[in-house]
Amino acid sequence: MRYVTLFILSLIFWFLLTFEFTVPNLIVGIVASVICALFFGRVFITNTYKLLQPQRYFWFIVYLFIFIWECIKANLDVAYRVLHPAMPIRPGIVKVKTTLKSELAKTLLANSITMTPGTISVDIIDDYLYIHWIYIRSEDPEVYTGIITGAFEKYIKRIVE
Helices marked H in the chain — which ranges? Predict the structure, then answer.
């Protein structure tokens, strides 16, 4: 089932990229999707039935809006720090505990943090993410964990787990 699901998703992605519905494009898309499914099917998600649950798509759309809003806020914060004459930064690496269990969820969280300006994910070890942060607002792990992952983690949990 994983191979078939990956084939279908790859073919849909192919048509979204090319947006051309001709016979040659269909043949190339099918061949590329088959190759993708054969090579990457064994590492694709195991519970493909989750892809058929519509509430996950709803939460993904909500997550996109939350992510865009957090990126806008982070962009303004970084712009303030760069343009301020004193350049108020307190960089450092913080250790953030996550409640996410699946590797896919942790990776999505780490990538979301990295794509937000002012932070970059350095490493994931067990249930901990190591994040480089341009301005460490608190020394308390509970506080900075809430600041960094609070907006993302609960939605990722609804989407992936």
Answer: 2-18, 23-40, 54-83, 103-115, 141-160
